[in-house]
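Notes, p. 3: input format for complexes.
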Amino acid sequence: MSNKPKILVSRAIFSDQLAELEKSFQVRSNQADRVFTPAELQKELSNVVGALVTGSERIDASALQNAKDLKIAANISVGYNNFDVPAMSLSGVMATNTPDVLTDTTADFGFALLMATARRITESEHWVRAGKWDQWSIVNNPLGMDLHHSTIGIIGMGRIGQGIAKRALGFGMKVIYHNRSRLSEANEKACGASYVSKEELLRTADHVVLVLPYTPQNHHTIGASEIALMKPTATLINIARGGIVDDEALAKALQSGKIFAAGLDVFEGEPQVHPELLKCSNIVLAPHIASATEKTRRAMVDLAVENLRAALNGKKPPSLINTEVFKA
Ligand code: DGY
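Output follows (328 residues plus (2R)-2,3-dihydroxypropanoic acid):
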């Protein structure tokens, strides 16, 4: 019988990272990568001291019901809306996430999605593949919207939002933002960004980019009435979380030409995509891949492991969310 501590790795990770973990822990791994049902997760958590989890696993009072020995659930993700943090604190379980290591990769992707959306890149590719391109044309080829010297409006100006702002400066864009709290003067200057109300941002931005965390208060931050404020030539990009946008209202707006186009990496009820969104041609769809480069996914796993090891060694995890649970 091994006396190594037992941990759970709830989803597939790179095999060398798993092998490294197995040197120190008895690992219940899930390299098959099938998402556990809530009942399975509850059972899996019942006999481990630590768990590496992802946004696919909801860690709440029910999941923790039998998790008597669990000290830490380390999310391999910066967003942690899959955590019921008060319930975790009540059970004495440390909650951690993976900030910083994915900022630039995610900001790169936000910008790529914005460019693809504004310039209709995937729609054009489908058009070419369908054999519809028979000649170069001034007016009868897919015409897009400019990014350069346009106004980008960023809602949610944390690390990733600021990364997108800095990229926008390279395109000569005017940057406006809305956030729960205003940035310091120095940070605003570094991003060349001006703070505006949400309404002003929606009315004036040519491109609206959503990068705010999901909370119940942020549910449907963008719905029909917000879309109605936007320019008919505007694009909307969501790399935040499903539920921030009312996907049904967005599909209606895209179908009726209320806005020009949308780029979505996240969806309400993902991996399901609202069937009306699938019917829209003026949309770029991606399967929640903003942080998906091998280098960054590895760094996310490494940071989650660092958090887990610290917690199990009585040290404060570097990205502890519920600091009140940690007792030195
Ligand atoms: C994150 O890190 O929050 C990404 O969206 C992956 O869940």
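The longest strand covers residues 151-155.
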